[in-house]
């Protein structure tokens, strides 16, 4: 293998973020050798030109269409010649030699399979989306009843949030999200990468579950820190929510058992309906007649319940748990 780590960035209309991302990843490198790969999902902006003209050492892959995040990562990974793969969002900025640190941590702590870091907002405060708890019938029940929203950050009533943990200590987690995810290439190949039945959202939870079933324990390395502008690659909030819930339903259908599947979907529907009704009531009390995001998600539930998959969308992984 020629490199220690292959840094893989999947872009879609990422012109505003990609320069900062690549400059930080390359500029913060210390001892590890890097192969940097950008796969562009048919962007309509200046993303490709910025990468091609500004970063001649970066390997640019253009499949000519939007493959989605999962398939895009898989294709980029096939071009990697490194011991480790690091999936990195285009709307991230690497801080304090984070790539070197997470690679060193993985070498010193084998057996975890998937390694994440600590993500921050631009103002330096915690942005918790580097990791989440795996979805379960319990977490979905809390979502359906609204308790996860009322008791946000409670480790029992909002379990996917992982409580009020600040991601500032080494801890095993259910899901390491794809915004900053390190995996040994041999394990990635063994697990056959992301399941391409996911266009985007849900693929990292699926990978984490398969990793755990193979005997590994995904973990967070708090010293590896990046800034993450969550959702900056998403076209609109409603577009992101539609893709997010489609990914969740796909996860239930693919990874939950025969009897758990319909229960999980019912609980998800119930939780969305509760929030749609609540937002309508609040809007009426405040004299606002506009249709908000929850009402739109409920009205378009047929789309995310699985009537058709794929389609063009943003290649962002700023996803989170149910609330």
Offer a few descriptive terms.
Spore Coat Polysaccharide Biosynthesis Protein SpsA, Chain A, globular, 323 residues, 2 domains, 9-stranded mixed beta sheet, alpha/beta, 11 strands, 18% strand, disordered C terminus, 12 helices
Structure description:
With 323 residues, the protein is of the alpha/beta class. It has 2 domains: 3-228, Spore Coat Polysaccharide Biosynthesis Protein SpsA, Chain A; 237-304, no CATH class. It has 12 helices and 11 strands. The protein has helices at 15-27, 47-54, 69-77, 98-108, 137-145, 147-150, 185-191, 203-213, 237-255, 260-285, 293-299, 301-304, and strands spanning 3-11, 34-40, 59-61, 82-88, 92-95, 114-120, 131-132, 171-172, 175-176, 180-184, 219-228. The strands form 2 sheets. Strands 1, 2, 3, 4, 5, 6, 8, 10 and 11 form a 9-stranded mixed β-sheet that branches. Strand 1, helix 1 (15-27) and strand 2 form a beta-alpha-beta unit. The chain is globular, with a radius of gyration of 19 Å. The protein starts with a strand and ends in a 19-residue tail after the last helix. The relative contact order is 0.17. Residues 308-321 have low confidence and may be disordered.
């Amino acid at each position: 293998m020629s490199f220690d780590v292959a840094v893989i960035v999947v872009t879609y209309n990422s012109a505003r973020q990609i320069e900062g991302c690549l400059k930080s990843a390359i500029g913060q490198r210390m001892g590890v050798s890097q192969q940097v790969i950008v796969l562009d999902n048919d962007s309509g902006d200046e993303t490709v030109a910025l990468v091609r003209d500004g970063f001649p050492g970066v390997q640019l892959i253009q499949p000519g269409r939007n493959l989605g995040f999962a398939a895009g990562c898989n294709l980029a990974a096939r071009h990697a010649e490194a011991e480790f793969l690091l999936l990195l969002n285009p709307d991230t900025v690497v801080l304090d030699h984070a790539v070197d640190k997470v690679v060193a941590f993985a070498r010193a702590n084998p057996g975890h399979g998937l390694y994440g870091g600590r993500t921050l907002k631009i103002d330096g405060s915690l942005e918790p989306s580097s990791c989440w708890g795996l979805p379960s019938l319990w977490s979905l029940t809390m979502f359906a009843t609204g308790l996860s929203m009322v008791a946000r950050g409670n480790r029992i009533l909002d379990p996917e949030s992982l409580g009020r943990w600040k991601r500032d200590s080494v801890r095993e987690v259910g899901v390491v999200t794809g915004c900053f995810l390190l995996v040994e290439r041999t394990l990635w190949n063994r697990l056959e990468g992301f399941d391409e039945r996911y266009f985007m959202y849900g693929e990292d939870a699926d990978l984490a579950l398969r990793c755990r079933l193979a005997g590994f324990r995904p973990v967070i390395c708090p010293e590896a820190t990046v800034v993450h502008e969550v959702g900056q690659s998403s076209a609109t909030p409603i577009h992101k929510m539609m893709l997010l819930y489609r990914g969740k339903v796909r996860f239930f259908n693919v990874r939950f058992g025969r009897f758990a599947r319909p229960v999980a979907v019912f609980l998800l529907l119930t939780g969305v309906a509760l929030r749609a009704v609540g937002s309508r009531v609040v809007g009426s009390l405040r004299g606002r007649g506009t249709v908000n995001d929850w009402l739109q998600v409920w009205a378009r539930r047929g789309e995310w319940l699985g009537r058709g998959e794929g389609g063009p969308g943003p290649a962002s992984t700023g996803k989170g748990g149910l609330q």
